[in-house]
Amino acid sequence: MDVENKRTPSKEEIDEESRRVRRLRIVVGLALQVIAQGGMPIEEAHDLAAATRRMALQLFPGKEDVYDLIYRPKFQRLINEIYRVQ
To answer: What is d(CA 76, CA 13) in angstroms, rounded to the nearest whole number?
Structure first.
């Protein structure tokens, strides 16, 4: 990609992306906390993780690979630990 073709994002664009990132962090954190409490069936924990992924992809379309790299392992580790899945 040419450096000349890159444009600098506006302050509004940067602020909007910051809001989306903050929203994603809050939702992921809450979902992880709910799962960590262990009071739901494992199927519901998987459903919550899937719903969190869908929300993340609504906020950041086309970023499936990034989500799968950063957040999927966190959900898998926690579910494996809480529900003692091998």
So the answer is: 32
C-beta of residue 78 within 8 angstroms of C-beta of residue 35: yes
> Residues near 60 by Cβ (< 8 Å), separated by ≥ 6?
20, 24, 66, 67
Burial of 39 (0-12, 13-18, 19+ CB in 10 A): exposed
Per-residue pLDDT tens digits for 57-84: 999 999 999 999 999 999 999 999 999 8
Q: What is the DSSP letter of 47?
A: H
User: CA 33 → CA 12, 30, 65, distances in Å?
Assistant: 31, 5, 23
Query: Which residue intervals of 38-71 are DSSP H helices?
Result: 42-59, 64-70
For the chain, the domains span 11-83
pLDDT tens by residue, 18-58: 999 999 999 999 999 999 999 999 999 999 999 999 999 99
